[in-house]
């Protein structure tokens, strides 16, 4: 067995010295698996390999061994002439966590090479002996930014109160990387004495430092920071990580006066779930109605969070939503509780067709019978129901178009109904559908837009004349011609100079429909347009305007 191991080791050593990278990598792994001192000596020497990936593999192999027999070998390697060997040895010693490595690692903090000092600092941070605290604190004055950052990290992991003042001092470091690390370390200490310093750091000139300090300050969960957290939550420009932390902590502290800010933050998608959970923790009845609204959200996690929060407020029936069972929607309908209407209306736009049908049936049980007909997608039925519909109709129909992939039948029936309802709220959704560019979807959306004819829609359509897609501008021009609103005249005249002949033709035709004399001269100038269709459209438009005089 001894001869076999010796032969194998020699072969692997040869591979390590070969020019083939793959052979060298295989040799590193195999020597590590042998787990004997001669093999480990070979590995340690190869920490000096110029290939970064070989060095990384050797380091990883040495860290995984965690065998006390190799401690002395690694300690000796801290004095090797190659800095990469010293660096790898320092890294591996940190993983082994052997008391014999304390003094050698502390000595390595004085190494001339900053990368060695960096690894030694990081490894000392993993050691449990309190004697390493003072040497780590001294490293906060190192000339190298990365070394100082490593020392701050290590002190943060120690969570020793004696590191508080040095870490507070590190908040003034010239390097933003070190300041961020100091902020994070103080967050781990969670010492109330750091509050004032973190508050100052939250105003740091570097945004990343400021944000990290804000989150660390919030993590203190100190009642004195409540006003600070509420103010952050009310700031729409605040980053989402800060808002999440503020919402979570205010909920844990059960700050009832934060309820308005938490309800407002429900509008932020990335903060919503934390805000919902916080509102549940407050157990304030004022949160019930806002929470009910999110029971119909398209995100299952949000629905569950809302149901759980409501149960904390004594509204246990909503827990049925958590299961996501279609029969539960029916139970929502049979409950007779009209507060179920809004979430069920939202579920009409769910991506799952079975959910939409179940929601429609539940609404029928609540005597909101029209929704079952809408889900079937029959245009005739839609028309017959228009007189019965309430203001919630438009929002629910828009939800069907924007949060799901409806069948073609349902989609076109929904466009038809939105046009018939003539509610300007639908304008943006219908205009967005024009970007399809061609086909029946555009025609259906165009017909619906023509029926709206309100100032808001006209304004949105005129703005779309600047859309980057020529097919959209063409469609918009045709729609404006049919809407008979003279505010479109000047914008359409400008489109007569559009690069796309299709847009120029559509603008000319639209101006003919509007019959405004202001268009006469611009249309006359189109007589020499290079496209025959544009010339014909301009000629026809002029005829209509003159006949209307």
DSSP helical segment count? 36
- Architecture per CATH nomenclature, i.e. the level-2 architecture of the domain at 1-128: Alpha Horseshoe
Q: Report the major sheet.
A: none
Q: Do you know the CATH topology of the domain at 1-128?
A: Leucine-rich Repeat Variant
Based on CA inertia axes, which overall geometry fits? elongated
Radius of gyration based on Cα positions: 35 Å
Helix content: 55-70%
**Strand element count:** 0
Low-pLDDT runs = 377-389
Give the name of the CATH superfamily of the domain at 1-128: Leucine-rich Repeat Variant
Instruction: Give the percentage of residues in beta strands.
Output: under 5%
CATH class of the domain at 1-128: Mainly Alpha
Q: Distance N terminus to C terminus? A: 112 Å
Structural class: mainly alpha
Task: Write structural notes for this entry.
The protein is an all-alpha fold and 549 residues long. Among the domains are: 1-128, Leucine-rich Repeat Variant (Alpha Horseshoe); 422-549, Alpha Horseshoe (Leucine-rich Repeat Variant), CATH 1.25.10. The chain is elongated, with a radius of gyration of 35 Å. It has helices at residues 2-16, 21-34, 37-45, 52-65, 71-77, 83-96, 102-108, 114-126, 133-138, 145-158, 164-170, 176-189, 195-201, 207-219, 226-234, 240-252, 259-265, 272-282, 288-293, 300-312, 320-323, 326-334, 341-347, 353-365, 370-376, 379-385, 392-402, 408-421, 427-433, 439-452, 455-463, 470-483, 489-494, 501-514, 520-524, 532-548. The chain has 36 helices and no strands. The longest helix has 17 residues, at 532-548. Helix 13 (195-201) runs antiparallel to helix 14.
